[in-house]
Amino acid sequence: MRAFLFALALLALPISGIARAAVPAPVNLVTEATVKGAITDYLMQKAAPLNAQVTVKKINYQGNLKLPAGKVTFDVVAPERWEGYGTASVALVVRVDDQVKRNQTVLVDVEALADMVVASRTLERGEVLATSDLAVAKRDLAQVQGRYFNNIDEAVGLRVKSTMRANAPVRKDNLEKVPVVKSGQVVTIVAENDVVRITATGRAKGPGAPGDLITVQNLSSQKEIAARVVDATTVKVDF
């Protein structure tokens, strides 16, 4: 009898008092491969102007993403001065329906192989380069930080500042012009325009290669002026 009365009491309880199981919210599962694919697409677009053979060597990202239901978009932002090769830390921003759900830094490494001038043999300090000293081969842009020659003719006639190994890229910052005017040398100073040409004798106050601007002392007036080296005996004043 007591059990019967207890059952009746339970039936009399309001329906709202009965506990209900929570329904899980819909979830977007974004795989690691999808995230890396979005980063790779950005890196390839960034490197496109390099005119190089580009390979993404490393993307330091792991794991799937569990996101709320909605439209998922990715934004990848590189450092302002990064040119698209070598290592860099890029920002990965993941949005769902335009709401930011993930913002993190990802380390990447991009190899960009481009045709550039290399040493065909070991080049010693002080050597003046000839065509036979050089060749063209593919090398990683990260090795030279953009300071390289595309054409052998651009490097011929320049002087090596420090020893270079065979097959190493010839960096622009490791070459210098060969001075044709020495410090203290007597030179002819030329000043001319379409109407008049004036010459004077001067003394170079420093060395210079063709095209360099050096200081020259006019031996008649003793005044020092800036003049551009033309050849081994002549400098020119612009006026």
UniProtKB/TrEMBL annotation:
Which Gene Ontology cellular component annotation is one that this UniProt entry carries?
A: periplasmic space
Residues covered by the SAF domain: 114-176
Indicate yes or no for the key word rRNA processing: no
Highest rank taxon of the organism: Bacteria
Which compartments is it annotated to reside in?
Periplasm
Q: Which residues form the signal peptide?
A: 1-21
Does the keyword Signal feature in the UniProt annotation? yes
**Which UniProt keywords are listed?**
Bacterial flagellum biogenesis, Cell projection, Cilium, Flagellum, Periplasm, Signal
Cite a single Pfam family from the UniProt record.
Answer: ChapFlgA_N
Q: What is this protein called?
A: Flagella basal body P-ring formation protein FlgA
Species, as recorded: Geomonas terrae
Q: What is the lineage of its organism?
A: Bacteria, Pseudomonadati, Thermodesulfobacteriota, Desulfuromonadia, Geobacterales
